[in-house]
Design goal:
31% of the residues are buried. It is built from nine helices and four strands; from the N terminus they run αβααβααβααβαα. Helices cover 44% and strands 15% of the residues. It binds uridine-5'-diphosphate and magnesium ion.
Length: 162
């Protein structure tokens, strides 16, 4: 029972993942969602929105001293972004693994950026880099009532418990 409870708690881990305007314009929304879905992660929130530049600056506030900050925020706010929350055991770290290295030239084949992007300024997708940023980014992009709690029928096959 204790082990089952530990598993159940781990399965509640959440991360924020966003398809940036380049990914949306290139028609990669379904492809990207499909990769996360087939892995066994669970989609618990999703919306399409054009963030303001101020909002983009909030999202990327950690990078405000970097030379590319202005262009990055300009770009994120230039068109539709598909904002999502994904849930599952290890989803923060493994989500980053599925996404690949920041620079697509260094991303392994098989990763989203490795397979679908070429340059760092147009790397099509964002994923939270740790538990704290995941929490902050989910709170920035979503209201609590926009997150949907549900049990997926597949969980017992993905996790082997419950
Ligand atoms: N970026 C850029 N030039 C750089 C480094 C980063 O344009 O030299 C952009 C890129 O789109 C990246 C985003 O800034 O995804 C955020 O940078 P971070 O280091 O947080 O990379 P990520 O977490 O997205 O892999
Ligand atoms: Mg980052």
């Amino acid at each position: 029972v204790q082990e089952q409870e530990a598993h159940a708690a781990a399965q509640n881990e959440r991360t924020f993942i966003a398809i940036k305007p380049d990914g949306v314009q290139r028609g990669l929304v379904a492809e990207i969602i499909s990769r996360l879905e087939r892995k066994g992660f669970k989609l618990v929130a999703i919306k399409i929105t054009v963030p303001s530049k101020e909002f983009a600056q909030k999202h990327y506030h950690d990078l405000k001293d970097r030379p590319f900050f202005n262009g990055l925020c300009q770009f994120l706010s230039s068109g539709p972004v598909v904002a999502m929350v994904w849930e599952g055991e290890g989803v923060i770290k493994y989500g980053r693994k599925l996404i690949g290295a920041t620079n697509p030239q260094a991303s392994e084949p098989g990763t989203i950026r490795g397979d679908l992007a070429v340059v760092v300024g147009r790397n099509i997708i964002h994923g939270s880099d740790g538990p704290e940023t995941a929490k902050d980014e989910i709170n920035l992009w979503f209201k609590p009532q926009e997150l949907v709690n549900y049990k997926s029928n597949e969980e017992k096959w993905i996790y082997g418990v419950n």
